[in-house]
């Protein structure tokens, strides 16, 4: 019996505002929700202009703190993803997987675990020994690497994922192939390039 691997299209958006990247994500999510097929799964790769984003599990952010961050020259967005406040900026690789989990496994817990394993594989390609813990997150020793090297904040609605992974402190052009290799291996998929 031959197992068909899900296809995932890689789209490089370059440097883009968070607002514009969010619109692109929403277009890809709509394609999934309007379609009964397992395509087009997409990995959106980009860098952002300076922006702070806050997830839904955060208490309302004080308006004066939001204004202070904006005064530093960054945008500020409240999002529908999990997680706390996160800075995105030039030189940081951002990866937004927009996947229909029906093409993989209809489990948000499985998806989060696969993202963690992808980060662990990517770290190992940079010589960093990372692991998971009983709680969510990827750790190097006693340090939660998701706060240092990579942040995962996801949203999933009707088993279509959005938001994603942010890598830091490695030139993006060096990080992209390692991320794609780790993602391909962990999600057992075939990448399609534009």
TrEMBL record:
Q: Name one Pfam family in it.
A: LplA-B_cat
- What is the annotated localization of this protein? Mitochondrion
Entry GO CC: mitochondrion
Name of the gene: lipt2
Q: What does this protein do?
A: Catalyzes the transfer of endogenously produced octanoic acid from octanoyl-acyl-carrier-protein onto the lipoyl domains of lipoate-dependent enzymes. Lipoyl-ACP can also act as a substrate although octanoyl-ACP is likely to be the physiological substrate.
Tell me which UniProt keywords the record has, alphabetically.
Acyltransferase, Mitochondrion, Transferase
Pathway of action: Protein modification; protein lipoylation via endogenous pathway; protein N(6)-(lipoyl)lysine from octanoyl-[acyl-carrier-protein]: step 1/2
UniProt xrefs under CDD domains: LipB (cd16444)
What's an example GO BP annotation here? protein lipoylation
UniProt similarity note: Belongs to the LipB family.
Q: Where is this site: Lowers pKa of active site Cys?
A: 144
Question: Which reaction(s) are listed as its catalytic activity?
Answer: octanoyl-[ACP] + L-lysyl-[protein] = N(6)-octanoyl-L-lysyl-[protein] + holo-[ACP] + H(+)
Q: What is its main location?
A: mitochondrion
EC number from the UniProt entry:
2.3.1.181
Query: InterPro entries recorded for this chain?
Result: aa-tRNA-synth_II/BPL/LPL, BPL_LPL_catalytic, Octanoyltransferase, Octanoyltransferase_CS
Per UniProt, residues of the BPL/LPL catalytic domain are 37-194
Q: Which molecular-function annotations from GO does this UniProt entry contain?
A: lipoyl(octanoyl) transferase activity
What is the protein name given in its UniProt record?
Answer: Octanoyl-[acyl-carrier-protein]:protein N-octanoyltransferase LIPT2, mitochondrial
